[in-house]
């Protein structure tokens, strides 16, 4: 009997640690409220955004009006907007220069396709016509995207553009 008294109360197994919990799901930070004055303080004024948008859209208008000349007018619109407003509106200076650089880059691409066609005595047209169509769609889509972004106050940068005018 004494052996039972010396043993003491029966021991319970050691407590188990709780199972590991997964971290709480990460929620993305809230997007800035357009009506928040702190967030909109960095946006250029509406007039500058409109002129920035016009710098991009002027290339479309110039291309349509000069299509009988091979679309050479795509330079004139952005060039005029940039030259007229570059000293008074920093955002238009940036966006006009960007639109002009993009249209120069596209013109270089079109010129390269024409040279390839001529050098191959017309056989290269099997390659250059589909590439020219793709280049035209690329120009149209990115010009519209740039105009929308400029109107939102975003300093848009065209992809794959040579920055020739600094």
Topology:
Blueprint: H1 2-7, H2 37-40, H3 46-65, H4 76-85, H5 90-119, H6 125-151
Helix pairs in contact: 3-4, 3-5, 3-6, 4-5, 5-6
Describe the structure in your own words.
It is a single chain. This protein is an all-alpha fold and 166 residues long. The protein has a domain at 44-159. The chain has six helices and no strands. Helix 3 (46-65) runs antiparallel to helix 6 (125-151). It is a multi-pass membrane protein. The chain crosses the membrane at residues 53-84, 104-125, 131-148. InterPro entries: MamF_MmsF (IPR019109).
Summarize the model shown.
The protein contains 6 helices and no strands.
Poorly predicted regions are 34-39
Number of strands: 0
Helix segment tally: 6
Strand residue content: under 5%
Keywords: Membrane, Transmembrane, Transmembrane helix
Subcellular location: Membrane
InterPro entries: MamF_MmsF
Membrane topology: Multi-pass membrane protein
